Amino acid sequence: MSAATLAPVKARGAPFRVMPGFKLSLGFTLFYLALIVLIPLSAVFLKTFTMTWEAFFTAVTSERVMASYRLTFGASLIAALLNVIFGGILAWVLVRYKFPGKRIVDALVDLPFALPTAVAGITLTALYSSNGWFGQFIEGVLGIKVAFTPLGVVVALTFIGLPFVVRTVQPVLEDAEKELEEAAASLGANSLQTFTRVIFPTILPSLLTGFALAFARATGEYGSVIFIAGNMPMVSEITPLFIITKLEQYDYAGATAIAVVMLVISFVLLLTINLLQAWTRGKGQK
């Protein structure tokens, strides 16, 4: 055997990378991110900066705008919480049980993703109006009016946010180790203890992720809400609709001012949720 064969292979100076052209890929990623996200957001802030502080404060704190904030963020929060509860249950059923029509139910979960938002809004309005299939019984028997009320906004936001929770929790449940549940049962834990101490800590980060996604989608939702909301000022008028109204009145600075407030509030809430999610994951790894 020759000496060349026995010679040690010289180590490479640069670390091995799976994806070639890292610098080019990183540059394109940053450029695309700036083009799609950063530049439009910067334009919103720059347009808002053309206003005086007094004009900005007046535009974003008027009584009608404050009412739209309360409805938009309040309904989004309620809808996201409902989706966490019922979306988690639905994900559990789809993963842990076998029943006829399971594939159909699993496919229907993604319906809000595929359905145009305007079609969803019209359909929900037709179902929950006073003479609709559901609305005539809910209003006639229970005396609760759904369509053209804030409750209708919650229904629409719950509909469009459900898939986010189901699709984030479902893979975690599929990968969960059932042996841990069996071990807990063999050590004397009942069903409630097994859920609270074994299952729930495992799916909590995914639940928080689904909540954040559902909440973020709900705060900016427009198409599926305007039909069922009724758009009555001070009652069922959402903030995205109010921004559209400002644009139709050529009040671009006022529209961007309200949009900036929504961006800041949404960013703070999502940052809080992400920090809570990171803390939960770190606590679970200890």
UniProtKB/TrEMBL annotation:
PROSITE patterns recorded: ABC_TM1 (PS50928)
Keyword Transmembrane helix part of the UniProt annotation: yes
Membrane-spanning intervals of the chain: 29-50, 71-93, 113-134, 146-166, 198-216, 223-243, 255-276
Keywords: Membrane, Sulfate transport, Transmembrane, Transmembrane helix, Transport
Record's subcellular location: Cell membrane
Cellular component GO terms held in the UniProt record: plasma membrane
Molecular function as annotated in GO: ABC-type sulfate transporter activity
One Pfam family hit: BPD_transp_1
The ABC transmembrane type-1 domain, residue ranges: 69-273
Membrane topology: Multi-pass membrane protein
InterPro entries in UniProt: CysT_permease (IPR011865), MetI-like (IPR000515), MetI-like_sf (IPR035906), Sulph_transpt2 (IPR005667)
Function: Part of the ABC transporter complex (TC 3.A.1.6.1) involved in sulfate/thiosulfate import. Part of the ABC transporter complex CysAWTP (TC 3.A.1.6.1) involved in sulfate/thiosulfate import. Probably responsible for the translocation of the substrate across the membrane.
Subunit structure: The complex is composed of two ATP-binding proteins (CysA), two transmembrane proteins (CysT and CysW) and a solute-binding protein (CysP).
Annotated family: Belongs to the binding-protein-dependent transport system permease family. CysTW subfamily.
UniProt-recorded name of the protein: Sulfate transport system permease protein CysT
Source species of the chain: Janthinobacterium psychrotolerans
